[in-house]
Structure formats: C-alpha cells, structure tokens
Amino acid sequence: MSFASFEFLAFLAILTLVYFIVPKKVQWIVLLLGSVVFYAFAGLVSFFFLFFAIVISFITVQVLGKRHAALKKYLEDTKDTLTKDERKAYRAKHKNGSLLIVCIGILLLTLSLVYVKYLSGFSFKNGVSFGSGAISFGSTLLEVMGISYYTFISIGYMIDVYREKAAVEKNFFRHALFVSFFPQLAMGPISRYADTGEQLKTPHSFEAKEAWCGLLRILWGFFKKLVVADAIAPAIGAIVGKQLGGIYFILLCLFYSIRIYGDFTGGIDIVLGAAQILGIKLPENFNRPFSSKSTAEYWNRWHMTMGNWFTNYIFYPLSLTKTMQKLSKWGRAKLGVGVGKRLPVYTATIITWLATGLWHGIAWNFVVWGLLNGVVILISQELNPLYEKFRAKFPKLWNSAPYQSFMAIRTFLLMSLIRVFDCYCDVPLTFNRFFSIFYTFNIADIWNGGIMNIKVTATQYIIIAVGIVIMTAVSRLSIKRPLRETLWEKPILGNAVLALLCIAILVFGSYGLGFDASAFIYGGTFN
Amino acid sequence: MKKVIRIISFVCALLIVLGAVLYFGAVLQDARLDNREGHLLCGYYDTTDMHDVIFIGDCEVYEGFVPATLFEEYGITSYVRGSSQQTVWQSYHILEETLERETPKAVVFNVLALKYGETPLEEISRMSLEDMEWSGSKLEAIKASMTEEESLLSYFLPLLRYHSRWSDLDGDDFKYAFDKHQDITHQGYLMQTKIDPVDISDNRQPDDLLNVALPKRAIEYLDKMTALCKEKGVELILVKAPTNSIRYYWYPEWDAQMVDYAEKNGLVYYSLVGKDDEIGLDWSQDTYDKGLHLNVYGAEKFTSYFGKILAENHAIPDHRSDAELSAIWGARIDAYYKERNGEK
Amino acid sequence: MEKLIEILENLHEGIDYETCETLIDDGILDSLDIVTLITDINDAFDVAIPPEEILPENFNSAKAIFALIEKLDNI
Lengths: 527, 344, 75
Hints:
The structure holds three protein chains of three kinds. By secondary structure, chain A is mostly helical. Chain A has two domains: 6-206, no CATH class; 211-315 and 346-508, no CATH class. Chain A is 70% helix and 1% strand. Chain A contains 21 helices and two strands. Chain A has helices spanning 6-21, 27-40, 44-77, 84-119, 147-162, 172-180, 193-196, 208-242, 247-277, 295-301, 304-319, 322-335, 337-360, 364-393, 395-399, 401-419, 421-424, 427-435, 458-477, 483-489, 491-508, and strands at 129-130, 135-136. Chain A has a two-stranded antiparallel sheet. In chain A, a hairpin with a 4-residue loop joins β1 (129-130) and β2. In chain A, α2 crosses α6 (172-180) and α20 packs across α21 (491-508). Chain B has one domain (39-146, 183-340): 3-Layer(aba) Sandwich (Rossmann fold). Chain B starts with a helix and ends with a helix. By secondary structure, chain C is mostly helical. Chain C has one domain: Non-ribosomal Peptide Synthetase Peptidyl Carrier Protein, Chain A (Orthogonal Bundle). Chain C is built from four helices and no strands. Chain C is globular, with a radius of gyration of 11 Å. The mean pLDDT of chain C is 83. The A-C interface holds A 88, 91, 163-165, 296-297, 300, 311-312, 315-317, 319-320, 325, 328-329, 341-342, 344-345, 348-349, 377, 381, 388, 392 and C 12-14, 27, 30-32, 34-36, 38-40, 42-43, 48-52, 54, 75.
C-alpha cells in the first residue's frame, strides 16, 4: 500500500475513526492492529522479518533490564561491605556482560538486514560480479517492507536501554507497536524510544487542531510529490536513458534535487501528518535543508533522524573507542599534534559515511556517494579556519544577504552533484557525463526547444515552476512555526487553502493512468 | 463563534472540492469530442419503440448493419448496440440491460470479439463503459472490464482518470461540459461515406495463430449470453461479418470452433467471411479504410443480404403495413439519406 | 575549569564560553567538534566520556561539560 494512494487514505480514515471511538485504554491496540493490517498488504515474508526484529529486540531489552536491576540491587546491598574500587570493578565487569548481550542483539538484527538487502539474491551459479554498476550477487533481492527502518529503530532502542537512557517496555505487544508503528516504516523517520515510546502508550483525545493540521500536512505532502516531484520524473528518466550530457547534466542535477526533495519531504509530510491526526508527534526529518550553508549543516537538516542515528550509534561510539583514542595518542606522538587530533574524527567520519552509503543499498554508486559526502565534510572542516578569518575580517560582507545566499546555493549545487550518482547507478558513466559539461555544453538547447524533447511539455514546466515557487514560499513562511499552524488561526483562509490544495493535486497531480505510477523513491529503491 | 466559522468553512471547502471534482471531471471527460466513436451506445436509452432484432458487438456491427435499410427493404425493426472494440463481457452486460427494457425476437451477435480474453485497450474499453447509463449491468460490465491498474472509483469520479488532459483544454470544452451527447448514429449505425479501397499490392500474410483455442473467458461470457437469451425466449444468432483485412483476420481454426459451438448449443452461426460474391461486395468501393471496415455502400449491401436471411430463415415479421411504425421509421430513413447524400 | 575553557577556545575562537548556554542548540559545536573536544578532555582530565553521555544538556555550556567531567571522575 503506497502512501500516495486512495487505499492509504481510506485505511487512515477508518483507522482514525476506530481509534477515537474505542475506549482510550485500548487505543494502542488499534494502532498495533493497524500496523498488522498495513503489513499484511506487504506479504508474509515482510511479516516474518518484522516479527523477528520485534522478538529479538524484545528479548535483548528484557535481559538488559533484568541485569540493570540486579546491578542496582547488588550495589545497594554492598554499599557498606565493599570499597569504592571493588564496586567500580564489579560495575565494569557487569557492564561488559551487558555489552556482550546488546552486541548479540545488534548482530542478529544486522545479519537479517544484511541478508535481506545484500545477500538474499545470492546464487552460486551467477557468482559475484563487481562491475561498474551495482555489486550484484546474482538474481533479485527479497523485498521486505521497511526493514531498514525498523531494524534501525530496534537497534537504537537496544542501545538506549543498554546505556540506561530509555525505559524497558515489559509488555511484548506494546514493544511490538513501538517497533512497527506503520507510518514510519516506508521511509522513516527513524524514531528513538524518547520520541515515541511513551506517546504510543498514552491515551489521546481527538483534537480538531491536530487533525486539521495533520490533514493539511498530508495534502501538502501529496502536492510536493504529485504536482512537482513526479511531474519532473519523466525528464530525469529521459536524460538518464539517453545519457545526454552538457547542459542536460546540469539540468539532471537540478531536476533530481527537486524530485528527491519533493518526493522525500512530501512523503515524510504524509507520514507525520497521518501520525499527527492520531495525536502522535513523530520526530521531524527535515528542517529546510536547501537553506543550508555548508555540507555539515545540510546533513543536520536533511534526513535528520538518519543522521542522528549514525552520529549517536556509530560515529560517537566509534570515535571514542579505546582503539581510536590510542590511535590519536600514537598519532600525536609520531605525526604531530594536529594529525593525531584529527585521526579519530577522520577515520570515524569516513567509516560512518561508508556505512550510510551502504545502508542505502549495496552498489558502487552508494559507496562513492557516501565517501564523497564524508570527504566534502572533512574538507570544509579543514577550510573552516580560513572561513573564520574571512568572516572576522569582513563581517559585513559575510552577513550580507548575497553572500549568505551564495553559500546556500553553493551547498545546494554541491549536494546536487553528489546526489546525481543515484541517477545513473553507474560510477564511471556518471563521471563521464559530468565531464561532458566541459566539451559539449549545448546551452542553445534551452531556447531552441531541446529541453521540450525530454518528455515534459512547456505547460508542465510552468506548473512545476509554480509548484517550486509555492514550495519555496511555504518553506520561508514556516521558519518560526509551520505555516499550517498559522493558517489554523485563520479558518476561512486556511480552509480556502485546503480546498485549493485538493483541487490542484487532483487536477495537476501525476497519478493514475497516463502517468507512470511512481512509488516513492525512498520507499522503493532506497528501502 | 470561531469554532462555528471553522466548521462552516471546512464544510464549504469540502463542498467546493466535491463540486470541482465533478465539474472538472465532466469537462475533462468530454475533452475528446472529436472522437465519433465515443457515443454509440447512449442513443438507445432515448428510444421508446420496440425492436424485433438487436445487434450486439464491435465495429463490425455498428459499421455493418443498417437498421434503415432493414426496414426499408424488409420492414424489420432493429437497433444496433455496438461499440468500439466491445468485448464479450461488455456485450453480455449490454445485452442484459437491453433485455431488461424489451424482448426482441432475435439477438444477432458478431463473434469477432471472442478473440479477446482480456480487455485489450483501457481507453477504448472505457469509451464503451462510460457511454452506458448507470445500472447494475454497467457496474458489472466495469468490474469485468477493468484492467489491473484501474480503480473502480475513477468510473464514479472521471477526474481521477482524465485529469492529465488539463493541458489540452480549450474554451469550448467548458461550454459544452454538461450538454447531453448528441446521438450521431442511425439506430446505432455509424455512417462512413468515404471510399478508400483495399490495396491490392499489399500481399502481407496473417501471423501464425499461436493459441488456436479461443480464450476461455470469452467463451464463458458467450455461454452466459446463450443462457440469458434462452431464459428470455429470444433467439441468439451468431454471425461473423465480412472483412478484407489482415489485422482483423478471422482464422479458419476459430471459425471451426464457432461452428462447433453453435451445433452444441442449438444455435445458428453465419460465417460471412469470403462470401463477397454472394453478398455482392466490391472491396475497391465498399470500404472506407482499406478493407478493415465497410463503408455505407458496403454496409447496405451486407444488410440487404443479411435481412433476407432474417426474414426467410428466422421469420422476422414485416412491419411496413403498420402505419404508426412506418411513420416513425420513415422519419429515420429520411434522416439517414440526408446524411448519406451529404446534406448534413 | 580554566583548562576546559582553553580547550574550547582552541576549537573555535571568539565565543564567550563562560556565559554561552547554547553551544549545541545553536549549532556552535557540531559532531566533529564534539569528538575533538572529548578526545582533548579525556587527555587533559584523565577521564573517559562514554558515547551515551553525549547529550545536548551535557554539552550546552562550559559549566555543564565541567559538571560532566566531575561526575565521571567521581563514580
């Protein structure tokens, strides 16, 4: 069941109705049943892997909870009999035991993820080919809905419990709901227990404001996806399919950025809006990403829950391991303070980005994509002192609107360029097309009608352009608080916007026959 | 107070959306006025007189049988319920709704569509379906015809299907959005006056037949038609209209199956492919699209030939002595000749 | 505390670490800075800040960071 479908809207409407009719005590059961139904659409295989993740994380968390309690009791009982050092030693030993348990849990879930995403298509007959494109293990991979997301949610929860930063959910079914809450499984957000753990348990009354704002947000998501992102998609397909170069490569970068922005942020708007109607606040996943002035800032604003996950559970632990700290000390002694200090950060950054790339899929283009992101972040980190000096010398220029815009545009273009590796799924070809900018630019195609020959008509370009202008305006108007909340205060204007939005989606949206029914890219290829 | 405004404006918004969906749906659905084959079925619902013969089927029916000629020459009252690429399940449900309204003496079904086991083209299938009046038969016809990507909802809200046509709209589309469709047929017959002869130099051969047996699903619906006609006491006559085209080639293997079928079910089957000399067809004169379909001159010859069969073999009565019917049909025949002679 | 301020100043100049209470919330310190900072602190104070203590509330001000160091020292 795609989020951009009437089935999903009908499903949500029925679920909402039931959810607010039943006694508040059993609301969470309705959500759990809803998730089960949602999963039933995806088939038995998907169901099995989800169940596996729920069981493994539940057992792990229970054992960890018992150990924490036992340790506490032991320390309490031995308060007067043992010395501080003895207690410290016991604590350390105990912690190692817990670490082993959480590692086993993580390993099992990671194995199932790796199996589904990378190995399930393996066949000895076809062998492994490391061609220029995907690293292929033969035939097609298993399709398991949402496995990337609930695996990360489960792993995050287990680590949080191990770190004693999250409570242990003792009820198996409530735990199951936390892991499987249906809106977040197709494209995130990757919530932590602190985000949704309590909310999913507590009763919720129907709030007109939440419902209205949620509805408007869902419609806004549809607008971004159907009117803008999916409308530009045929042009991307045409440019990639014909392997056009020069000016088309630049257009491809721009178009693909527009597409993935509309598709992904729109999808997340639908997810968060749906949850909001049910009175549940999922963590935000985007914070005006295209206004970022540096790559590092961009990754703090784009797919934030994924970024946070990698920072919290991979980057920090990795860079703070004893090995890394030793490496740093060794570096300082042998290679100088500067290099030594940087060693852990650099190593951890590159490894984290490699992992981020591979999480998206096992293909060389994702490897290159991840490494490029890491390298760009590190280079800008190195250039930072230079920027700081520049800023100190010319504070006025730095803070002026043109310079700020310049930085935002620079970041946008850089990220667009890195992102384009997704399009070709072929690293050498991407480079080849990139370099074509320098020898066959063909700028005349802009006005001689060439760009009308890539499956998008002039009227469609106009609609897309208007859509982009509206998206930009809404984004700017939502800096302090979301525009929908402002509109809630003005009922007549707000409902007029709601009606116009509906009509615009229904008339101009790319859906139904005559269009390629395109699934969300993030739910599809990136799943 | 604010709460009241809120509720009222929300309800208004919903109503506006609903109105827009219906209005734009109607506008966009009709933004194909140029297509003459889009409204062949709707005229039937306005007729009040009864017919002794009902023709059911695809293009070979609505461009092959001329009710005006049938009355003029044999006094047979008839109506053609044909539509473009009408599939057997559509034919069955159209027959069903027709037999709800009247009980003719005979139903003539053209068997060409039996070669389709599933809906070949969604756009064309929709033309037939949307042209039907709402009824249980229409709903069943839709369900039987829908391709995998279609949703039932889009038949109730045509905007969902036709919204992407917005870029082709012009002012007229808005003006005529709610006008009733004009019936351009003559009792279901669509007149073609052009002459475009068969290209004799074209010596293409038909493709080899891959599946000899006609699709099971098509035969199932033919069974249903047979049963329905038996139940209502109407004679079902199977016919294969003449053609001279490779594209609509009627394989001898299929013909044999029809002969078998007719025998098993106690029906009559007239295979009229290759009977050009008997009928008097001249493919350099009697087709408007290189032998694919008959033009009006060919259709008249064919109707004349088939009318004789109806009158002699099936005892379809002659109503020419009935003053009331003669008056009604006289007007129809006049209108028919007016278009035939290019006065329209 | 002075040692800590010195480490922080090495990281980014021109920020009043004595009073600033929003080092994380305002994005003054990003994740790369945090790791560099912790590496320096671990070295200078002979503690080991574990990853689970990397929370906004522990790093938002110099005071909070110092409190964290003392807490870890005293366990």
